């Protein structure tokens, strides 16, 4: 389909989807433009007003203390707070103790239900255990768990104790877990004996044990025993259940006060170098940003049941399973497992069973459902749904339209563009605005985003450019852990503005149409990977001497990985060599990073200084013009 941004008569003029009249009556924000204009006239006043509604141990001196030289943004500077006070204490004091906070459905369909009161209770017990272990504010804790209540509670307990969690997606391999721990130097690791996927047991503890061998900072490991409650543990490993039992009557644990500089978490994400970067978020700004975006974008009210299909191991799960929804006092559905197990109706079944009102999914998942067929959603009663969301990669209009059609044909879809670094939605519709399939529409209030050229000037409508943000926003990342230089790079690419790494077009109505990354980041099924990471996994295979990786468009996953490798002279070329190399990447990084295709080659295009030109490989692969190749060596 042509990009609507290409034609002056855009879809907005011809055929936007207007909100349902019933929906309009329930909106928190009924007039986007007025609120947006107001928010931009004085962003500090705008965000300050939102922050007034939170509990603070000490209020801020300044809403924003911005240093344009170092790009350091200290939101709510001078304040003392803890995000969990606003997720738990506040709601419980307001009588929500018995309200369901979390419904967790495991791979086998078994369910566990947690009220706000129960989350508070288990969080407190865990906080007492952390204190007993001598953990102190600022210490790092690695959480390597499947999407389960224990994962959520571990995150919250760290936050409440002033500890810095670094959640590692449970699908990662020992190598990926190890490198993340080497960088963050945790004192504690929290893991489980196993995860489950499609009825299969995944030996998580073996992976964790393999990874932690070399981590000298690590003192203890807490293990959740899901399969065998009597599983024998090794020295330094403590069963989670024994800690909960031990502190059953230790009582309330007061949340540790945090300043604007105290990290809440580090989350590793891929960049252009081989080493993942530890994106650091802090309490007060992240709290205000995720609270408001959850509330306004998803139009959250007291009776909402919010289902986000991400894993809390990614930023989407941090912001829109754990922090944002619980700050809003909502009920969250957390699902382990896969969308097509035990059958392709799994998610629709969960929507029906738990009367889900807001369903936040990904383009790849929607396209997968399209492939599996309409008969699956049609089997279920989806009438509880009020609103849909999409995240992680550009959504093609066909998938957008299908998602809307199978859910009743009336629901608004919020195509939310944002990143690990931004912490919160940045470019996204609000439920009352006219929608155009495939467009993330406009910036969220308080966010000054634009599409620009290399000089930072806005490009003309219909022209592609870089997506940037001109002013700080509350839940922006504060630094790259241990690498402030890498943080500054985001602001130096085009001096003074935040450079996202994405390209987009704006149409004649100012709507954003996202295109994709302009750097060496690939999004495979919405998972963020760096070409360099995959390349270094490839060259660690004994048969591979050099490798280059590109993202190749794919109908289902958006992009898949294609790797070009040069073999070592002495490599034995067995028929299964490609497969073995692919398996090797899986072992090094995890299944999500496994290349779809390996092409063995004798030659890779390089600049005269020896850098591999992936751009040229990609152009050749796709049969596109190669662009400027003047730096290409002979
Ligand atoms: C939240 C998340 C960030 C990258 C981002 C962009 C892509 C995310 C998108 C989207 C088009 C959307 N992306 N949402 N592209 N439309 N609605 O995915 O964070 O894993 O850090 O990835 O994802 O390319 O730069 P993260």
TrEMBL record:
Belongs to the ATP-dependent AMP-binding enzyme family. The keyword NADP does not apply. Keywords: Acetylation, ATP-binding, Ligase, Nucleotide-binding. InterPro entries: Ac_CoA_lig (IPR011904), ACAS_N (IPR032387), AMP-bd_C (IPR025110), AMP-bd_C_sf (IPR045851), AMP-binding_CS (IPR020845), AMP-dep_synth/lig_dom (IPR000873), ANL_N_sf (IPR042099). It is an enzyme of class 6 (ligase). Residues 98-476 form the AMP-dependent synthetase/ligase domain. This is Acetate--CoA ligase. Residues 32-86 form the Acetyl-coenzyme A synthetase N-terminal domain. Its EC number is 6.2.1.1. GO terms for biological process: acetyl-CoA biosynthetic process from acetate. It comes from Leptospirillum ferrooxidans (strain C2-3). GO terms for molecular function: acetate-CoA ligase activity; AMP binding; ATP binding. Pfam families: ACAS_N, AMP-binding, AMP-binding_C. One of its GO terms (cellular component) is cytosol. Residues 533-611 form the AMP-binding enzyme C-terminal domain. Transmembrane segments: none annotated.
């Amino acid at each position: 389909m042509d990009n609507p941004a290409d034609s002056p008569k855009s879809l907005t003029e011809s055929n936007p989807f207007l909100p349902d009249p019933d929906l309009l009556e329930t909106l928190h924000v009924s007039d986007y433009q007025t609120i947006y204009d107001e928010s931009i006239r004085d962003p500090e006043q705008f965000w300050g007003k939102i922050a007034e509604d939170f509990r603070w141990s000490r209020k801020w001196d300044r809403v924003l203390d911005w240093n344009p030289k170092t790009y350091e943004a200290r939101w709510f500077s001078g304040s003392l707070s803890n995000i969990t006070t606003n997720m738990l204490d506040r709601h419980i004091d307001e009588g929500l103790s018995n309200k369901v906070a979390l419904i967790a459905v495991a791979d086998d369909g078994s369910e566990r239900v947690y009220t706000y009161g129960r989350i508070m209770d288990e969080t407190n017990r865990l906080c007492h255990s952390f204190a007993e272990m001598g953990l102190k504010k600022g210490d790092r804790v690695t959480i390597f768990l499947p999407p389960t209540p224990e994962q959520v509670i571990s995150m919250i307990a760290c936050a409440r104790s002033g500890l810095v969690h670094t959640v590692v997606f449970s699908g990662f391999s020992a190598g990926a877990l190890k490198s993340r721990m080497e960088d963050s130097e945790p004192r504690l690791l929290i893991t489980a004996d196993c995860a489950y996927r499609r009825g299969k047991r995944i030996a998580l503890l073996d992976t964790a044990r393999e990874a932690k061998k070399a981590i000298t900072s690590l003192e203890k490991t807490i293990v959740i025993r899901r399969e065998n409650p009597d599983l024998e543990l090794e020295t330094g490993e403590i069963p989670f259940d024994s800690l909960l039992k031990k502190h059953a009557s230790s009582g309330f644990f007061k949340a540790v006060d945090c300043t604007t500089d105290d990290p809440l978490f580090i989350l590793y994400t891929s960049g252009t170098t081989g080493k993942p970067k530890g994106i650091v978020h802090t309490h007060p700004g992240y709290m205000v940003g995720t609270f408001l975006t959850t509330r306004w974008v998803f139009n959250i009210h007291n009776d909402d049941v919010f289902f986000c299909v991400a894993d809390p191991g990614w930023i989407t799960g941090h912001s829109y399973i754990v922090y944002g929804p619980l700050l809003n006092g909502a009920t969250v559905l957390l699902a382990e497992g896969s969308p097509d197990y035990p059958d392709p109706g799994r998610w629709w079944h969960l929507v029906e069973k738990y009367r889900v009102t807001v369903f936040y999914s990904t383009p790849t998942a929607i396209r997968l459902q399209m492939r599996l067929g309409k008969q699956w959603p049609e089997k279920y009663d989806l009438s509880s749904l009020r609103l849909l969301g999409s995240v992680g990669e550009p959504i093609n209009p066909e998938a957008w339209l299908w998602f809307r059609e199978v859910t009743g044909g009336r629901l608004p879809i919020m195509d939310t563009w944002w990143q690990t670094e931004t912490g919160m939605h940045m470019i996204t519709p609000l439920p009352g605005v006219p929608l155009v399939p495939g467009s993330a529409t406009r910036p969220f209030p308080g966010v000054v985003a634009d599409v620009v050229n290399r000089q930072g000037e806005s490009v003309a409508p219909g022209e592609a450019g870089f997506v940037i943000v001109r002013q700080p926003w509350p839940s922006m990342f504060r630094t790259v852990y241990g690498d402030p230089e890498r943080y500054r790079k985001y602001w130096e690419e085009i001096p003074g503005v935040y450079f996202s790494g994405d390209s987009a077009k704006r149409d004649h109505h100012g709507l954003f149409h996202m295109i994709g990354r302009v750097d060496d980041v690939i999004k495979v099924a919405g998972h963020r990977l760096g070409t360099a990471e995959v390349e270094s996994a490839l060259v660690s295979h004994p048969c591979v001497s050099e490798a280059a990786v590109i993202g190749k468009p794919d109908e289902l996953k958006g992009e898949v990985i294609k790797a070009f490798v040069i073999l070592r002279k002495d490599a034995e070329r067995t028929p299964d060599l490609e497969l073995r190399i692919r398996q090797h990447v899986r072992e090094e990084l995890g299944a999500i990073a496994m290349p779809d295709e390996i092409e063995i080659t004798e030659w890779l295009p390089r600049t005269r200084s020896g850098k591999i030109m992936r751009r040229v490989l990609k152009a050749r692969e796709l049969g596109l013009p190669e662009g400027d190749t003047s730096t290409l060596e002979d």
